[in-house]
Amino acid sequence: MRTFEDLIDEAARVDVTGWNFDWLRGRATEDRPPWGYSRLLASRLARVASGLDIDTGGGEIIAEAPRLPPRMVVTEGWRPNAERAHRLLSPRGVQVVFVEQGQPLPFADAAFELVGSRHPVDPDWREIARVLAPEGTYLAQHVGPASAFELIEWFRGPLTRERLSRDPEREAAAARSAGLQIVDLRTARCQMEFFDIGAVVYILRKCVWWVPDFTIDRYRTALERLDAYIREHGVFVSHSARTLIEAKREVG
């Protein structure tokens, strides 16, 4: 295996915009939930006249859909990702709208038949319900509770209170209180494997909310310990949590 310094230096230089994880091929793996969200969303987009994707990242999920509705809009709250999404999706006629996190969606009431999102930062249920057309559907894959916490707690220590957040039943209750009817609610826990310390540095640079103050210098000691662990055991194992949620806007 290459040296610790070589691995972290390489990972510190690589571009981490967007939600394409091809750089990790051969260096890390993550099992996928059984429902296949990308395919599921694509099949629904092909059957509606208007769609909205919230927190689209670099637009990768929408780009995978073979057929898009006549009106397709995506939102993103980080400008480098929004710019990436514009380059990727504008040739297909998709409107990319920059929306800062926590701000209302800049769309009319009942504007979309389908609203989707893969891993939204903080779903605003009342805004989602507002922009859905009558009988419209919200279909999303959310991050579940204590996702990747084996890795996160390696750097941050025990996070007892945080382990209780992103609870699927609480999210479903919040959706109902906003006037949505839950159609489907499923959860999955998926194994993640990291085969070198460069993969860890890359993912912490990309998923900045995992260890919000992460820098290589600040966490060098923890990185060195984890590098030694991976070299001894061949892999560091963590687990992601995912929730599939489908909801419809109630009428009347």
Automatic annotation (TrEMBL):
InterPro entries: 23S_rRNA_MeTrnsfrase_RlmA, SAM-dependent_MTases_sf. Gene3D superfamilies: Vaccinia Virus protein VP39 (3.40.50.150). This is Methyltransferase family protein.
